[in-house]
Amino acid sequence: MAVQTTDSPVKMKTSEENLLEVQHLNKFFNVGSGVVKAVSDVSFTIKKGETLGVVGESGCGKSTMGRTILRLYDATAGKVLFEGKDVHKLGSREMKKIRRDMQMIFQDPYASLNPRMTVGDIIGETLDIHNLASGAKRKERIQELLKLVGLKPDHINRFPHEFSGGQRQRIGIARALAVEPKFIVCDEPISALDVSIQAQVVNLLKDLQEKMGLTYLFIAHDLSMVKHISDRVAVMYLGKIAELAGSEDLYAHPLHPYTEALLSAIPIPDPEVERTRERIVLEGDVPSPMNPPSGCHFRTRCPHAMESCAKVEPAFQEVMPNHFVACHLYNEEIMGEKVRRV
Fold first, then answer.
1. Under a CB-based contact definition with an 8 Å cutoff, are residues 119 and 157 in contact?
2. Residue 101 class from Cβ within 10 Å (0-12 exposed, 13-18 middle, 19+ buried)?
3. Dihedral through CA 295, CA 298, CA 301, CA 305, nearest 10?
4. Under DSSP, is residue 137 helix (H, G, I), strand (E, B) or coil?
5. Strand order in the sheet with 316-320
6. Which residue, 27, 54, 106, 44, is CA-closest to 81?
7. Buried/exposed 150-184: b ≥16 CB within 10 Å, e otherwise
8. 230 and 247 in contact (C-beta within 8 Å)?
9. Residue 51 buriedness (CB in 10 A; 0-12 / 13-18 / 19+)
10. Where are the domains of the chain?
11. pTM of the prediction?
């Protein structure tokens, strides 16, 4: 399906520091007589060793974007450049090589591990596919990976049902690390885990990043956890990025009305502050991605919506240093004298 994309004002830096560049990425699904626009004209970069957090409501396209970046889904339009190579234009041989560098940690540790395979075979499968180790070296490598993620070497012969949810997710992490990747998509890796062990898994990911120089795309619902692990954060709504900024900057100075609403829902441990602060409650439901609103996709729920929001799609632009937002409230041509100064 051919898709027309508008010129984005986002400056895509071609620095050698950028491990990943996503340019005007689209992923649409044909469903019956309609089209689900899961990811629509998304652009961003990720530097080597960086963690980019992605947040948003369920169904906003976070996981689909992650899978399309890894080419588990073919892109409808746009480019995904990994170390300068367009992932979606590579042949099967080149793609097999690059898959060593791009891995994924899945959301559900109960569904992502084959119950008929031992832990050793689950982790060792990737070693077999890429011919990285065999025999005694294969076993030694698997045991090293188990120790690396906090499990015991003798767990190699056990089956997934013998482990807790947190331990299963550690096995999934070990599987992703087996081929020594440079980039990992963490697709809500803590959402299926008990709250008591979520922080342990996130801290493990941070430790592994420091030890191995990993780069993460970290997808999650937990805004507090995303702030803890991320260098920058992208806020998605209905297939588009509404705001993108450094973690501290975004949480201290949210610009998009949707970001403001999301952050207002984070509990604050200080009871005095919690009682006095204003919660922003959005009205209505998220529109269907098969029939998104015209203009700004968020306008049907936005407390600041204007007439122009229904007519013109807001540009995704840099309104502060390294702080991007797609909102007419920061568009001088739309707002005129009423423009919000930042």
1. yes
2. middle
3. -50
4. helix
5. 102-105, 183-187, 215-219, 51-55, 232-237, 240-246, 323-326, 316-320
6. 44
7. ebeeebbebebeebebbbbbbbbbbbbbbbebbbb
8. yes
9. buried
10. 18-101+181-252
11. 0.88
Looking at the chain, list the stretches that DSSP marks H as alpha helix, in order from N- to C-terminal side: 62-69, 92-99, 119-129, 135-148, 165-177, 195-212, 223-229, 247-252, 257-264, 271-276, 307-311, 332-335
Q: Which residue has the tokens 């990994």?
A: 82
Six token digits for residue 6: 């508008």
Cβ atoms < 10 Å from Cβ of 125? 14
In tens, the pLDDT along 192-217 reads 788 888 889 999 999 999 999 999 99
| Amino acid (1-letter code) at residue 67 | R
Q: What are phi and psi of 159, to 5 degrees?
A: -105, 160
Determine contact, residues 183/215, Cβ cutoff 8 Å. yes
**Which range among 54-63, 209-218, 278-287 has the greatest average pLDDT?**
209-218
Write 151-157 long-range contacts (CB < 8 A, 24+): 155/119, 156/118, 156/119, 156/120, 157/118, 157/119, 157/120
| Alpha helices, H only, 108-194 | 119-129, 135-148, 165-177
Q: Which class is 18-101+181-252 in CATH?
A: alpha beta
DSSP tag of 180: -
3-state SS string for 202-247: HHHHHHHHHHHCCEEEEECCCHHHHHHHCCEEEEEECCEEEEEEEH
Q: Report how far residue 227's alpha carbon sits from residue 224's, in angstroms, rounded to the nearest whole number.
A: 5
Residue 341, C-beta contacts closer than 8 angstroms, at least 6 positions apart: none
The count of other CB atoms within 10 Å of the CB of residue 294 is 12
C-alpha distance from residue 133 to each of 138, 156, 180, 280 (Å): 5, 16, 13, 54
pLDDT digits (tens, 9 = 90+) for 89-147: 999 999 999 999 999 999 888 889 999 999 999 999 999 999 999 899 999 999 999 99
Start-to-end CA distance of the chain, whole Å, equals 39
